[in-house]
Amino acid sequence: MKKLLNTIPYSVLDLATVIEGKTPADTFKKSLDLARHVEEWGYNRYWLAEHHNMISVASSATSVVIGHIAGGTKKIRVGAGGIMLPNHSPLVIAEQFGTLASLFPDRIDLGLGRAPGTDQLTAAAIRGERINAAQDFPGDVLRLQAYLSPDNHRSSVRAIPGEGLDIPIWILGSSTDSARLAAALGLPYAFASHFAPAQFLTAINIYRQNFKPSEYLEAPYVLACVNVVAADTDEEANKLATSLYQLFRGIVTGKRRLLQPPVDSMEGIWTDYEEEQAGQMLACTFTGSKETIKEDLQQFLDQTQVDEIMATSHIFDHGARLRSYELLAEAFGR
After folding, report:
1. How far is CA 171 from CA 101, 105, 133, 221, 223, in A?
2. What is each CA distance from 66 to 73, 98, 102, 128, in whole angstroms?
3. Is residue 172 a contact partner of residue 81, using CB atoms and an 8 Å limit?
4. Is 108:77 a contact under the CB 8 Å cutoff?
5. How far apart are the first and last CA of the chain?
6. Phi and psi of 224, rounded to 5°?
7. 275-288 pLDDT tens trace
8. Above pLDDT 90, what percent of the chain?
9. CA distances from 142 to 57, 83, 116, 203 (A)
């Protein structure tokens, strides 16, 4: 049966982007304002991601920012998309998210990734002697589940708060590595197609084909994160999207900057090589008017049959960003 946009949930990934001329403090205020708006527009979740040593991303202390957003909203689910588990002890994450879930019952999600969320030098500073902790990711997920389990009350090491709380755990992926783990554990799978689309279709097929029902989930559940830049006209959206293009040019060249204002044209700003490389990373990007976005996202849904779409929007002007998410909600039939 064909899925329609108005039958699936839609959500937000906020990378807590710091724009040129502003500070992380400004970012956190705008994130909360965005969260309050999208809550009213019917969005399902509001996730933040753990990154380090990136001047344009302010969500390094992810659990703290989640608390800020959840505390300023009423019903939208708030969570991590995700916590890079090899950077932390499973016990500490169980305690942090147990605290969040105690403060905001039935509203907290915990997405887990195995990447460092940064460069290798910074990863070494974070992990210390545990620099190869990514190899322990499957075991760490199981340890985290154990700490959150009601049965853990018999253990000599307990997560207080956390133990016995219903905190949905997701496995995140940007390649095929975690697809089999999510399938084997019977957990929902969220894919970072907003920056790593190359193995997206392969990974979700592996996940679906190998999925084993669990106490958490009876059938596979795939969430795809995509870039969205919506505006009242295609022309306006295309101009707004140049901020996104400049951001990804910085990723390609290794010369990261705060999010830049839009420009009339990218000509002369990036080389053909930079444009090609950024274009590959941005294959799952949807830009245009509400009508254009709706048509293109429906084609994406037809191709992938995902269960939920999460949008991230790198837009310089806060008002334009709000408008983009409002139009996206309308495209989903709000």
Report:
1. 18, 21, 16, 11, 10
2. 11, 13, 13, 26
3. yes
4. yes
5. 22
6. -115, 130
7. 999 999 999 999 99
8. 91
9. 29, 15, 19, 21
CA distance 233 to 25: 31
- Which tokens hold the place of 274? 């930079």
* Two tokens, residue 80: 């991590």
Residues 6 or more apart whose CB falls under 8 angstroms from that of 76 comprise 35, 38, 39, 43, 44, 45, 46, 107
Closest CA to 190 of 226, 227, 142: 226
Phi, psi (deg, nearest 5) at residue 265: -155, 145
* pLDDT number for residue 133: 67
- The whole-angstrom separation of Cα 303 and Cα 298 is 9
How do residues 27-52 score in pLDDT, each as one tens digit?
999 999 999 999 999 999 999 999 99
Q: Are 84 and 53 in contact (CB under 8 A)?
A: no
Total-model pTM? 0.95
Which residue's entry shows tokens 């009601």? Answer: 150
Q: At 52, give phi and psi (nearest 5°).
A: -135, 150
Q: Please state, as a whole number, how many other Cβ atoms lie within 10 Å of the Cβ of residue 171.
A: 28
How do residues 260-306 score in pLDDT, each as one tens digit?
999 999 999 999 999 999 999 999 999 999 999 999 999 999 999 99
Domains and CATH numbers, the chain: 5-331 (3.20.20.30)
Which token pair is 333? 């039939």
Amino acid at 115: A
Strand blocks (E) in 174-232: 189-191, 222-230
Q: Mean pLDDT by 10-residue block, N- to C-terminus, for the chain (334 residues)?
A: 92 96 97 98 98 93 98 98 94 98 98 84 80 84 97 95 96 94 98 95 98 97 98 98 96 93 95 95 97 98 98 98 98 92
What are the structure tokens assigned to 219, written together? 């059938």
The 10 Å Cβ neighbour count of residue 232 is 12
